[in-house]
Amino acid sequence: MAAVSLAVIGARFAWLFTVPYLIRALDRRPDQRLRRVGARARVVSAVAGFRGAVSLAVALAVPEAVSSGHPFPDRDLIIFVTAGVVVVTLVLEGLLLPSVVRWARLPHDTSVGQEHHLAEITATEETLAAIPRLAADRGIDAEITDRVRREYEKHLRVLHAGDDGADDQPALRYDQQYTALRLAALARERATVIRLRDQRRIDDTVLRQIQRRLDIEEVRLARRETVD
Fold this sequence. Notes:
The protein is mostly helical. It has two domains: about 1-105, no CATH class; about 110-225, no CATH class. The chain contains ten helices and no strands.
């Protein structure tokens, strides 16, 4: 069974190192080139790709009897060998995969972070452009409108500063220091209301109400600090 398992993995290697090059030779479109992966990534796919669910399902689908009513020849052997190959292959891959992944040195997947950054910038820019109309529709005072607009402009400067990859940008430094100070102030505020409760100057109901507000603000700032 081990030999069959190695043959299965070898067939997958042969497929992954022949068919992609054939596709590259036939399909020269730019978007096809963007989907290309290196040889190291294909090695990881070859080692990690086998699961065996389809093979086992096909083996179990072999009928118990032929049309004449006689038992299907060697049906139990087919199921046994298929299941054995699946188990042995999984064991081999489980032993090999950690070493193969370390050898491959695959790059860190930054697609989620890039998409998050794109969404943040696009949403902020479109909202900033819509603020005058939103304020006019709701009859908001100019002072409040300017304050919200400045907040969005500051957030947009922070996002664009992050594009430069430098942590010493003034906008980033301002935002980081602001977040750190706000978190420290919230911790001080929390300690004060707990002391007032311990001194019996406020009851637990008031403490919980204030702590709920502090918790929401801390979660917002902590999430913002993590994203930045």
